Amino acid sequence: MALRLHNTLARSVEPFVPLDPSGKHVGFYCCGPTVYDFGHIGNFRTFVCADLARRALEFCGFSVRHVMNITDVEDKIIRRVRETGKELRDYTRGYEEAFFEDLRRLSCLQPHLTPRATEYIPQIIALVSRLIERGIAYQTSDGSVYFSIERYQSDGRQYGQLVTLNFDEMRVGDRVQQDEYAKETAADFALWKARVPEDGSVFWPSPWGEGRPGWHIECSAMSMDALGSSFDLHLGGEDLMFPHHEDEIAQSEGACAHSPGVRFVKYWVHVAHLLVEGKKMSKSLGNFFTVRDLMAKGFSGREIRFELLRSHYRENFNFTFDGLAGARASLARIDECLEKLAERAGGTRATADPSVEKEFRDAIEDDLNVAAAWGVVFTWVKNLNKAMSEGGLTQQAAATALATWERIDQVFGLGRPAEVAAPDEVVKLLEARQAARKARDFKGADSLRDQIKAAGWVIEDTPQGAKLKKA
RNA sequence: GGCGGGGUAGCCAAGUGGUAAGGCACGGCUCUGCAAAAGCUGCAUUCGUCGGUUCGAUUCCGACCCUCGCCUCCA
User: Fold this and answer.
1) Can you give the pLDDT at residue A78?
2) Which of A21, A153, A235, A256 has the most beta carbons within 10 angstroms of its beta carbon?
3) What does the alpha-carbon distance between residue A125 and residue A119 come to, in Å, rounded to a whole number?
4) Is the distance between the Cβ of A311 and the closest atom of strand B smaller than 7 Å?
């Protein structure tokens, strides 16, 4: 069994075989955030799934080069810049930093390269120039440049690799912007947008006059610059499938004139959307949550990560607070088990249990089937708990189990819970309670227990003595 | 209208042509001064509906119902 992924190009699950003849190196590009505001939980589902994909590739032995762009010039950003009167970079910097902070809170590995669109203007201009030279793009009288789908197709190339398109049946036109009146065909899309007064100071010089990049071209420029004109894996939210990714393919394959059989990207992976309480997230419904919002409600980054990793990436995921509370309980079950294992193992070292690791690997290799993988993990936890409650788990077996978790956690990336020490006053209350119990003053002991609970801590009476846990 | 996902216990969810993983919640038990916490344990004769193929279908085929998403802002 080897890694298999759902490839949108094939609309099916395929064996993952990288372009690298040695089969080792993988180029991986993920469409990153547009830094006009804080990212919401839906955005982060995609980024957590990208992190899962990267970790799974590494778990399977591949050496991954992970690139994720930062879109720091775009319509919404320009509008905010105009409204706030800030300079472009001053506006985007804060949200970019917040994004990386949230990514770390969710235990996502930092991509190896995170290029910004605004730092790739020369490459973008070069790419647009090549498309014009090849006769696939055209300039309009206002100084904008558009991609001609018709000329691309007559160049013998396919527009509509990711989705089945039927322009006659599509409901085209509602959202075509007024500044795009000069397009030859409604389906053509902007590569370079001529400067308009509303752009303020956001513009760059180009062979076609002052302006800024179109929406899709940045990803083509950055991904090919970092990973070459043909690379292995491109991931993004399902809404980007069309037009964004389709247009990326068209621009890239149009500009590079890939040979027949060679593609811009070999595997396209799309992450389904997250819903909140059964509905699409929207500000008017008030169900629009950022990572910060959830943390302010007391949930930890690892609880949020766990919740986002419970379901398959190609299924819509319904985010609910009941679900998040359930995630907390499930994760605590694993944490309890790990804590007990650590007590038993002491400093003993061991290697992972091969049979559990194999079951886990089989699930992950099957198109990142995390639900099946969790099934493996929880069955394993149950067996360990049973062995421990029956006293039949040796120090060596506990160490093996911990090593197994280390291996599993290379993919899930949840780590171990942060140890939180109880404050002195709570510890003093606990000591007083223990004294009261010893004196058989149970009324006093129960009162102290209530005080500890009010302070946010729970007493766990175990055969080894009383412990404090954060409520 | 076109294209593409889904419908499996109270909730989330995996899965297979041969008789339904796992988690949460819930009940029982152990532990405890009592609790809590924790652990153990129980919990779908059944997989949207109706037909068909088959020795056998939740799994394959057909029809239908419901639901979600995309169709040029979007993760």
Assistant:
1) 94
2) A235
3) 12
4) yes
